[in-house]
Amino acid sequence: MTLLDRPRAAFAFIFVLCVGLIAFALYLQHARDLEPCPMCILQRYAFIAIALAALAAAIHDPRGTALKVYGGFLILFGVIGAGIAIRHSWVQHFPPQDAGCGLELEFLMELPLTAMLPAIFRGNADCSKVDWTFVGLSIPEWALVWFFVFVVFTFLVLRRARS
Length: 163
Known about the structure:
The chain starts with 6 loop residues before the first helix and ends with a helix. The protein has a two-stranded antiparallel sheet with strand order 1-2. It has a single domain, classed as DsbB-like (Bromodomain-like). The protein is elongated. A hairpin with a 2-residue loop joins strand 1 and strand 2 (137-138). It has helices at 7-30, 38-60, 64-93, 105-109, 112-116, 118-121, 139-162; strands at 133-134, 137-138. Helix 1 packs antiparallel against helix 2 and helix 1 (7-30) runs antiparallel to helix 7 (139-162). It is built from seven helices and two strands. By secondary structure, it is an all-alpha fold.
């Protein structure tokens, strides 16, 4: 029996991974002084949404339709996050003339979650700047990898539960 055969454990695993990714983002922000840009902040929102949906699913231990609903939310948040990460990567590879990223930080700061979690969502860096890489991939490229992993992993859990 693998992790894919136990939805509760699979969702708990996704939750732990998301918490680890947010913790690493906070480490880069506060210990390495890498300020997040507006698109980084939106990707954090997506990881937090995935984490919360995965935590709820792990607690609920759904079966049948409920499992599909939780899985659908995880896949939806993963696809949204991947879309933001793709756009962010595009901006890094093909920086705009005005060095902006198409999102106004003032708009983001009006969102209610930022009032609850100010340490996570503080920052005003340029989206086109690459400040950190690991094995040749930038932060949004790594985020895209993780969003893809979460979507595929969730799809596999749903598929395995169906059979």
